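Hey, can you fold this one?
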Amino acid sequence: MSDVAWTLGPLLIGGSIALVLSGMVAVQCIVFYRLYPNEIRTRVVAVLAIWILDILHSTFIVISLFNYLVDFFGDRSRIDHIPWSIGLTIVATAITTLIVHWYYCQKIFKSSNRNWWIVAPIVLLAFLRLFAASVSTTEMIRLQRYSAFTEKYPGWVFTTGLSLSAGVDIIITCWLCYFLRRMRGRTASTTMAHVVDVLTLYTLENGLLTGLTVTASLICWVAMPNNLVFLGLHFVIGKLYANSFLISLNTRKALRDMRLSKNEWDPQVPVFSPDDLSAPHFLSSSRSPYGLPAVSMTVRPRKSRVPLPIPRPDIDCGALSP
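Sure. Predicted structure:
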């Protein structure tokens, strides 16, 4: 690795994009705590964990860029060196990915009527991805050279981790879209059908965004192991997962309000895997692909008050005549 343009360049670009996305993660976390002060504890803890992991991930990126661009400035022999902070970005991304995958597995589990045969393989693959990333981090810190890390071992471990991440993304997206389409076939409401169509579109976009980024990093790793383009893309992966998770939580209130309003659905509203279309008790519900109620209106007649006739006294018109 002697070409600076294809080693330090991708790290600088990928790190800069990752730090911008990290700012978006911070904003999304603040919005979550303001919108949902009484949220269930597990989600509060999950959001806090995502935020802490994102801060640590960004810190590791800054440290690695400082090492390459300042400490090793002008020393081409250090381009092949792997700082310890680079290795820790791998496992931080893997833990963030596991939390997000676990969140979507819960949605699939609820929508499939608690079918473990569907969810268990996804959970297993997600944990295997974390294990592969942990091994990759350990080997990076131990070897400290990219030329040694790209050998058959541990190179295939890193390849396996990226492949598992992309595979889990595809499986989750397919199952969510399947349950959405099944729900659409059961609804008789035109408005609700349009809502499901929009949700399906954004579910595909959300899953493809992370999946394609992971796939691009995997392709660059396999096709170009002698440069760091794959690592620049890998910097961004964790940020995309974190934003995907937080946006899916923060859009619930807007979706619920929009669903209950009389206004037409606005397809320009960004919806990323919302899990709450809940409504007041007078709405009948069925399970949605996100494990929460998909509402259909039950119209109740309004009880209007009919004024009772007021008795009028009999008036003798003759008495009023002059």
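The two ends are 120 Å apart (CA to CA). Let me know if you want another pass with a different chain boundary.
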